[in-house]
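FORM 7B: Structural annotation worksheet

SECTION A. Query
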Amino acid sequence: MRALASRSGVSSSMISDVERAAKSPTISTLAALSEALEMPLSTLVESPEPTRLRVVKAAERQWLVEPGTGAKRDRFMPTVAGSEVEFLRYVVPPKTLAGPFPAHAPGTIEHVYLVSGALQITLGNDVADLKAGDSCSCYADLPHGFDNRHSKTPAELIIVVEPPRAAMSDRARRHERGR
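SECTION B. Predicted structure
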């Protein structure tokens, strides 16, 4: 988020507010974000009719590289309307500690699948060693991080962040009940 804020000139707090639908961005804010993400402005704007299927081609994907660690993050966006789940691919370079990341809201769950490499995951005082093919789930309401300092190869993870049930929007709850 900080990298996007730096590239776009839009504050991290505003980006967070827009992502959570807590604030409606101006057209100039959307234009700055679309330029920084190198994607069409139309991709950032919801259509009036809910889209049942959203496709993002590989050529349209944009990695965000975290300054300092070089860790790369690719959020699988945009999602369908009503989705509150964040789905991302994350690569931790060799000899790198990514984090600690701040705690999420109480009740937030992170699901992690290690695609390649080996990695140590920390959650507060808990530590788990993962190898390619391993997965874990945790309540991410404590500081957490990914330690790849002892490896000579990158570690690639798929992460699904599930918000607390109470934080899900009414729209998402209605959609979930309608299944």
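SECTION C. Observations
DSSP finds five helices and ten strands in the chain. The helical segments are 2-8, 12-19, 27-37, 41-44, 170-177.

SECTION D. Sign-off
Analyst initials: ____
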